[in-house]
Amino acid sequence: MAVERHAGSLTGLSDDRLGTAAVSIVVGELQWLPDVAPAVMDRVSRDAVAYPDHFDRRPVAPPSPGAPPVERSARRTLGRLVVFAVILVVIAGLVFFAATVSAMAEQATLLPIDGIDGTLDVRRIVHVVTEAA
Amino acid sequence: MTGTTLAPGEPADSTLVEAARRGDLYAWERLVRRYQEPVYRIAWLVVRDSELAEKATQSTFVRAFRALPSMGDDIGLLPWLIRIAAGESRQQRRESSRPTPTDRPVEREVAPQLPASPIAGLAETSAMTPAERASLAEAFERLGEEDRLVIAARYLFGLTRSEAADALSLASGLVDEQLHGALARLRSRMTVA
Q1: For residue B57, what pLDDT is reported?
Q2: Reported ipTM
Q3: Pairwise CB contact (< 8 Å): A18 & B111
Q4: pTM of the entire structure?
Q5: How many CB atoms lie under 10 A from the CB of residue B142?
Q6: Which of these, A26, A43, A66, B60, has the minimum number of CB atoms within 10 Å of its CB?
Q7: How far is A84 from chain B (nearest CA, A)?
Q8: Would you say residue B90 has pLDDT above 60?
Q9: Alpha carbon of residue B83 to chain centroid
């Protein structure tokens, strides 16, 4: 038969020490804790996108680790400049091409075109363009 | 101690709460990382299951973010999170006890693990015998949920009477009474066979 008695040294503890000891034994079992931040932020971001009026918040993406905000901002600005430059080059190319074609067409109208009957002779135009080039 | 110790240069809770209210999700993430440990511990004390505690911890921070606009200025962040965590943990426990429609196990992403911080009160237990430690742990397990939570609020997180009242949704004057009763019940249940 088991004989029960109060735990000797425990009964002598003050309330504060007893409470501290109890929680430290029970919660001290936990050696590892889950990192819930990624899952929480995923859910919170989806909420903020799905219900913008309800939250009345402007979602701000968390920064990627290792890149300070200033560096990220500079990288974004540089990227925008590159895209802008590419668009400018494409537009300039188109304008130049259109001007060249227009000049050639004008030149072609000054030249006698044999056998013309209201339609353009493509071979003749190519010849004129080649000469002009 | 009413929260976590901040490293030099770390913004205060109130600064991050204000930023999160304005929509700064990064500020909320910093608060989640700052308080996920105490919230998980509270959840674990209620549900006593690591998977349910993890779910309750997640839900606590999602729900708290949604409720930020209605968070009063007169309540600290930790007591407020503890209050939400206790409710979410009870909800998880209720849901887990319901029969599931299928026996097929639900696949779950396993969250990365972080090492737990050392508990300040472990020195109190160093002189105890293994039997005494087991007796104390068992007595604590046999306490009701309210008793466990009031002891944790006071001795694990070091909340003041007013903060504990906020965290446990008790009238301020009842905190001491609840704590005194909880410790008396703990003492009466400690036995060594």
Answers
A1: 96
A2: 0.79
A3: no
A4: 0.66
A5: 13
A6: A66
A7: 30
A8: yes
A9: 8
Q: What is the mean pLDDT of each run of 10 residues along chain A (133 residues)?
A: 51 86 83 89 83 53 47 70 88 89 77 54 66 70
CB distance A48 to A59 below 8 Å: yes
Question: Per-residue pLDDT tens for B154-177?
Answer: 998 899 999 999 999 999 889 999
Give the count of alpha carbons within 13 A of A123, CB side only. Answer: 3
The type of residue at B40 is: Y
Nearest to B135 among A7, A26, A33 (CB): A7
Query: Chain B neighbours among A 62-121 (CB < 8 Å)?
Result: 62-63
Q: Which of B4, B156, B189 to mutate to test the interface with A (most CBs of A within 10 A)?
A: B156
Q: Which residues pair with A5 in a beta bridge?
A: B192
